[in-house]
Each structure stands twice: as C-alpha cells, then as structure tokens.
Amino acid sequence: MTPVDYEARLVARFRDGDGRALETLFDLYVDRALGLAIRLTETREDAEEVVQEAFVRAFRNARQLRAADGRFGPWLFAIVRSIASDRRRQLRR
After folding, report:
1. CB-based contacts of 33-37 (< 8 A; 24+ apart in sequence)
2. Maximum alpha-carbon separation in the chain
3. At 66, is the pLDDT very low, low, confident or very high (cuts 50, 70, 90)?
C-alpha cells in the first residue's frame, strides 16, 4: 500500500468518525501543522493553541473533507492558516 493509499483509507475512517484514525492523522501531521503555526503566530503558545483548535475543527467538520482526494494535510493546513489569520486580526483590534 502506498502512503497516499494509506492516508486515503485513514481519511475515509476519519470521515466515518473513527477516533483512532484521527489520532493517527494527528500523529502524522501535528509537527508540520505546528511548524506552520509557529511561522504564522507570535509565540509557540499561540501556535499550539492554533493547532489544537485546527484539529478540533477538522474533527467537527470531517464530512467536509472530500473523500475522493483523501488529502488531509492540505485541508488541515488551510484550517491552521485561517485560525492564525483570525488571531492576528483579533490582536490588531
């Protein structure tokens, strides 16, 4: 099984509400999501909060991830960017 096939199967299980699939996806992507969030926020603490919120949103909105492409990473990173952007706007106010 290729890495893409493996991830597609994880995503399918994740979309069906499988908590273990989410844990596995978390393990696969948390470091990269945190790296992105650190670049987009002021502090590591802010970055960790962004990543935590991103995974919560991803879990709540699992059905929005299209099963056909099975690309969890880009979808998660878009969520991270959105949350970080919202935080920056709030800090400016």
Report:
1. 33/76, 33/77, 33/80, 36/77, 36/80, 36/81, 37/80, 37/84
2. 49
3. low
